[in-house]
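Sample entry (244 residues):
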Amino acid sequence: MATELRRSTRLATRKASDASEYAESKLPLTKRVRKAPKTDAPKKVATDAPKKVVTEAPKKEAGAAKKVETPKKAAAAEASTGPGGELQVGDVLPEITLKNQDQADVKLSDVVKKNKIVVLFAYPKASTPGCTRQACGFRDNYQELQKHAVVFGISADSVKSQKSFQQKQKLPFDLLSDPKRELIGALGARKTAQTGVIRSHWVFVDGKLGSKRIKISPEMSIADGLSEVLLFAKKSLAGNPGKT
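Predicted structure, serialized as tokens:
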């Protein structure tokens, strides 16, 4: 009896288990979704931007050498003022001998030593209007000038041109021919290194340059020349010769 009861119990338990398994088999199956394993995103590696390389400009050396004047420029500068440079007040004339209108040699450096006052006026070209006015102005004042000074005209014209100019205008003083403009250059009256004469005048006192007027009108050359001669003459009489 007891054995029968235990058998019945086991049978009932098995049926219940089978029923439970059957019921579960009828239930919808749910799919299990596998999550992908998490992977860390690659970290950005900070990289420094390439630095700009600053290059310094080469520094100028202190006391850099000054520009050197080329021989060509130096020659042009010398040619524009004549050998030895342009005469300044207080200087003596260079030893240059020129021909006058009569082909006679005139060494003006000796003339200024032998005469108290010497007037020298330069004109661009003989027998041209401005030069004629200048020369004739000295001619018209020559009577007063010769009391105190010796007068010369000078240009780059030929001896022949100077003679014609002197005769035509009845000039009472010598005209010097300086075709190479040697003395004209030394006096500072070259127009350019190649050609030309600047209208000017100079007054020498006791062998030295007392005054100079470069680039002057014919009329002013005459008026200033006369007044300077009279002033130097007055100073000389007072025992005080020299600059104006």
